[in-house]
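If I may wish for something, please sit down with the protein I am sending here and say whether tokens and residues agree:
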Amino acid sequence: MSVGSVLAAPAAAYVSAQPTAAGVTDMGAGRIGAITAALLGLTAVAVGALALARATGRTRAGRIGHGRGGAVAVAAGLAALALGGLVAATADGGLGSGNGLGGAYVALIVGLTGTTLGALSLARSRRTHPSV
């Protein structure tokens, strides 16, 4: 065994132990979870905005499905918050490492927005139509 191979072995072990960033097209569990959470949060925002518009009387939908959109938006927003928080807590590495941390932050923001819109629509629908 030569001196060069003895000195090269620890360096090779160090290089192989370093985590590598995921490629652009690699879809790991972190990225899939973050994308799912962000899409769920965007759904919550859309449903919450429509429910809020219906609760304030800005649409002609009337009482059809009154109050259900707000509940759906709150549930979807909370699910996006939970999944985004899970991905953010378990991500190995920082932003740009390919583990879904950036998507998890986006999911947290849109999930909170969807939950807020849904809660506002529920509060307004109960205030404006107490008999429903």
